[in-house]
Amino acid sequence: MTTGPDGALLVVGDVVTDVVARHRGPLASGTDTAATIRTVPGGAGANVACWAAHRGGAEVRLLGRVGTEAAAWHERELAACGVRPRLVVDPKAPTGTVICLVDGGAAAERTFLTDSGASLRLDPGDWSDALLDGVARLHLSGYLLFSEPSRALVTVALETARARGVPVSLDPASAGFLVELGVDRFLALVDGVDVLLPSRDEACLLTGLPDAADAAAKLSRHFPLVVAKQGAAGALVARAGTVYAQVPAVSATPRDTTGAGDAFTGAFLAALLAGAEPEDAAREGCRAGASAVERVGGRPPVVG
What we know:
- By secondary structure, the chain is α/β, with parallel strands linked by helices.
- Helices cover about 35% and strands about 25% of the residues.
- The protein contains nine helices and 13 strands.
């Protein structure tokens, strides 16, 4: 894949190993619960990169940090999706691992048990201004905000991107971790981000408003473009304090909702980079999200 005329997409974020356990019915405390279990590559940042590459168009690059035990596997899996990985191998910490408990019912809702491992040990020493050479857009995984070293990396990356005129997008990543970080601290850390891509819960948490449309509108007074992902309710696109588009979801039969938001983000950013208007890019995102929930794991199918 070659760099498109408008430049590449650089994603900076988490690369983890997902252990996906699909169970039907409630978990049985103190005894066995039958489940189908698979180990697959994951991580919000890595998933976004893979879905962006899957859509096609510009070159997609990824900066992440992994442990020695799984570095080669993750590099192969990313390359197979068409991503150019730059993985920093951590000599001390293992690759992050997430256990995804997926309810086998109709909604396929999931619960995460997260050991971030090496993924949140990215630090400013892993950054180089040269990473932005040939890059038209920078995307940051919100998980980077949940540790001190990777927060420092976010600050450096944002400063470099602003100096070069490279637009920056960010996905807040986790309502649970956002509560721990604090809303005011989050907003201060992401000052200068051009595109915010929160989930419905994250948008409401960040604004204190119960309605997703009101929350997206309020956030768009702080960020030039806000795209609020609403799962089966589609997506909201807001600018300058107003929601100007409501994009419907694409019908799907969910098997595993892990990575659906990442799929949306990746396809949205790839479309935006190709010149699509935000509303049309959100439609691409909804299509990718629908495709993602019909698969186990957070990655697109590997072509070829």
